[in-house]
Design a protein that fits this description.
Low-confidence stretches of chain A: 1-12
Distance between the termini of chain A: 29 Å
Number of domains of chain A: 2
Radius of gyration of chain A: 19 Å
Order of helices and strands of chain A: HHHHHHHH
Shape of chain A: elongated
CATH architecture of the largest domain in chain A: Orthogonal Bundle
Oligomer: homodimer
Largest interface: A-B, 40 and 40 residues
Number of helices of chain A: 8
DNA sequence: CCACATTCCCGTACACCGTACGGCATGCGC
DNA sequence: GCGCATGCCGTACGGTGTACGGGAATGTGG
């Protein structure tokens, strides 16, 4: 598996294809380039000038399609939620088919975070501005989607009732809080303090946080 | 309680006292100013020029006492660990005296994070450079200290054996991972997705993660 | 008391950042 | 052919961290 997590890479033409794209196409190309820069070179490398340079375009041109750097960040975050949601859905699906085990889904989530630390950090550590309704919706939607996946997982493993029941949502919430804590610590390189491998710690954590295991 | 978390504020003289301080005293003053700027104005407000301005000193002077901005960040982080450690120790102490309840200690930890979001974020999201031995030691020491507090708490509440036993450390680890997940989500304003108040969510989380409750 | 060495301080400058402004070139309706 | 609208982006401004080197002050040997 050369590409561990399913993140689309469409790096063939890049600057070549700029000309024959319409407005939204160009915007998406900009976001895609910024997205890859973030994953590969870190957040502080995502620069208007660098993106423009990679696209063979003047820096100010980007402002025709995107409303500044913050807007670009929001779009990257939205894209990240789509991908992590897709990843986890797939992993949970295989969970369901095999045995009623939480580990594959959880492992997929944490793996995504570890393999895309800059993206994950941007997604979950960027504070929400309460006034920014659009951004709030992106975040809220992304989170709700993740919780949905966990809730469905809970329901399908027979550990809870219907996905929308209150108790199920609560369990899903704490399950995901725990995974998020583990993910952020792993990203920041703080896992060495805890004894044992990542898998061991994760297993021990899920034992406590998920109702029962099979 | 005007000052909710015990963070020292020594803002009386500031620039006045610069002159009659020795080398290490000046360095500590610089760190203290930067520390307060971080807490009050956010990370991107912590600027060499701004710190120097607040101290009535040229920007380049700071480099005589501190090895650049990253070094300053490290020193702030170290200070943050001292404070959070002290806070949680105190809270856990009162836990022990009253009843065997996890909540006060946990609440104190999360409250610290929520009231000092910029500081907490800097402390726990700054990635460790494996080559930087000094910084690694700061982080490692800070974490170990926190785990120690939790382990002692576990031992004193009679929920586990001696603090240093493997099982105790594992429980302390997962307890603290969960709290950290909760704290980071609360900081980033992502709690609205989960239904219920912070206290409810925290209680539900600790119920799962802490062995038993009294 | 003077001349020199050492230490501290910091003004200037450079490379980078996000982006406001305004001019240019192109295409389209008439 | 002309006038106008639109997309593109060069230039410039105010910010950042910090390398460099000069100046001031302080200590030190004669």
């Amino acid at each position: 598996m050369p590409q561990p997590t399913a993140i689309p890479t469409n790096d063939k033409p890049l600057a070549r294809q700029w000309k024959d794209l319409d407005r939204t196409g160009r915007r998406e190309l900009i976001v895609a380039v910024a997205f890859n820069m973030l994953r590969e070179d870190g957040e502080e490398a995502v620069t208007m000038r660098r993106i423009a340079g990679a696209l063979g375009v003047g820096a100010m041109t980007l402002y025709t399609y995107v409303d500044g750097l913050e807007d670009l960040h929001r779009r990257i975050i939205a894209r990240g939620f789509d991908i992590i949601h897709e990843n986890c859905s797939a992993a949970c699906e295989t969970d369901r088919r095999h045995e009623h085990d939480w580990m594959p889904g959880a492992r997929s989530y944490v793996r995504f975070a570890i393999e895309n630390p800059n993206l994950y950090h941007l997604m979950f550590a960027t504070p929400v501005d309460p006034d920014d309704e659009q951004f709030d919706q992106i975040i809220h939607g992304g989170f709700a989607g993740l919780l949905e996946v966990v809730s469905e997982q809970l329901a399908h493993t027979g550990l809870s009732g219907k996905p929308l029941e209150v108790e199920t949502r609560k369990v899903a919430g704490r399950y995901w809080i725990a995974l998020h804590g583990l993910a952020t610590l792993a990203i920041a390189g703080r896992m060495q303090v805890l004894h044992g491998t990542l898998d061991e710690v994760m297993e021990h954590l899920l034992e406590a946080v998920a109702p029962t295991r099979g």
